Amino acid sequence: MLPDHHLLPGTATGTVLVLRLCCFVSSNTYVPLFGCILVKLCLSSLHVQAIVNNLDDAHEQIDTAIATALRESKPVYISVSCNLAGLTHPTFSREPVPMFIAPRVSNKQNLEYAVEAAAEFLNKAVKPVMVGGPKIRVAKAKKAFAGIADASGYPFAVMPAAKGLVPEHHPRFIGTYWGAVSTTFCAEIVESADAYLFAGPIFNDYSSVGYSLLLKREKAVIVQPDRVVVGNGPAFGCILMPDFLRALAKRLNRNTTAYDNYRRIFVPDRDPPNGKPDEPLRVNILFKHIKEMLSGETAVIAETGDSWFNCQKLKLPDGCGYEFQMQYGSIGWSVGATLGYAQAAKDKRVIACIGDGSFQVTAQDVSTMLRCGQNNVIFLINNGGYTIEVEIHDGPYNVIKNWDYTGLVDAIHNSHGNCWTKKVRTEVELKEAIAMSTGAKKNCLCFIEVIVHKDDTSKELLEWGSRVSAANSRPPNPQ
Ligand SMILES: Cc1ncc(C[n+]2csc(CCOP(=O)(O)OP(=O)(O)O)c2C)c(N)n1
Ligand SMILES: [Mg+2]
Fold this sequence. Notes:
33% helix; 479 residues; 7-stranded mixed β-sheet; THDP-binding; binds magnesium ion
C-alpha cells in the first residue's frame, strides 16, 4: 500500500491534493499516465513522492519532484495537504523562472569503447538483426533507433511493449518479436540470427512468453538507457542510449543479409475468411475493420486481455500512436489512458479496444471524456468474461456479470454532451457503426459494444496463455 502520509500530524486529514505529473518523453509523444494503476506499479515505477505537509520545504520538494519527472521521464506524485494549498509563504514570493535541467551526458571514453566493442561484434556477424524494446521511450531514443535501422540495413522488430516506438511503415520492419507468438516470419529471423542488438528490452514472464524465447546472451548486444553489454561481456556504464546508437550507426557496415533472407521466405498474412452477412461477428473480422480506420491522425489504446494480441497485430501507419501497458497489465488502465491521451493529443482521434471485464473496473471515466467533449471511438468487446484469464487459469470467477454497456454509457451521457452508442452483433452492423463513427458522428464520443462469442480469441492468446500458464505453475526453486 502507498503510505498514508497525508494523515501526519499537523495536516488536515482526509483530503490531499495529489498531482500526478505526466512526463513528456519526446518532443511529440505524451504518455498518458492517468488511469488505474496498481499499487505495485506505483511503488516500483514511481520515482519520487513529495509529501508537502509543511511549507518550509515545499518549494524544494516540488522543484525536486518536477525536475525528477522531466529528467527521468517517470511519474512523480506531489501531495499537498489541503489546508496548505492556498497559503502564502516567502519561498514562493517570486514568479517562478523557467526550469533549466542540466542535460545528462555520456562518459566519452566509455562511449568510444562501447561503440568499438559493439561495432566489432556486429560487423563480424553474418546476419545481424535489431529489436526495439520499451525502454527506448524513457531513453528518448526513438529517432536514434530509427537512424541505426536506416544506416545498418538490418531488419528490425519490436518487442510487444515497445509497439508505437519504432517506425512500422519502414520497409525493413519485420513485426513484433515475442517468441512463439511473434508476427509470422519474425521470430524465425530474430532467433536464427547470429547477432542481435536489443535496444531497451524488458524480458519478463509476459514478453518472454513464459520464459520460452530462443535467444542466447552471447549473441546479443543489449543497450539499456545508460548501459551497454556486449555478448557475455564486456559491459559499459554511463552511456546514454541515443549517444550510443547514433555513434554506432556511423560504425556499422551495411548488412542486409537477414533482411534478404526474410524477403525470400516471406508470405503475407491473409485476411480472415468473410462470413455470411447475418452470422455472429468474429473478433478477427472486427480487427480487420479496425485496421482500416488507422492513420496518422489516430492513436490506438489497447487494454489488457485478448485486445493485447489483436491490437499488437495492427500494422501502424506513419504517425499513428499506440499505447498499452504490459508491465503489470492492470485491467481498467485503458479507460483512464484514453481520457488522458485524448486530452493531451488534440491532433489524434483515440481508438480504444477494451474488454468487458476491464471496462467494468473504470467505466466512470467515460463521464469525464464526455465532459471534456472528447470524440474517442471505444470498442467495448463483450465476450461475457475474463477470456485471457480462461487461457491462463480457468475457473468460475472468469464469467462476469453481463452489463448493458451501451445503456450504461447512455445513462452517463444523460443527454448532456456529444455521445453516440451502438450495439453490434454482425459484420454488417459493425460496418454501419464504423461508417457512422467516422462520418456523421465523427465529433462525438462513439461507444460501440461488440458482442462476440466467449471463446472467440486470437490464436496468439491461446499459445501465449498455455506458455504463461506453464511458467506460472512450475515448481518453486529448491531452497
Ligand atoms: C487490476 C487487475 N485486476 C485483475 C487482473 C487479472 N486480469 C488480467 S486480464 C483480466 C481479464 C480481462 O478481461 P477482459 O477485459 O474482458 O478481456 P478479454 O480477455 O475478455 O478480452 C483479469 C481479471 C489484472 N490484471 N489487473
Ligand atoms: Mg472479456
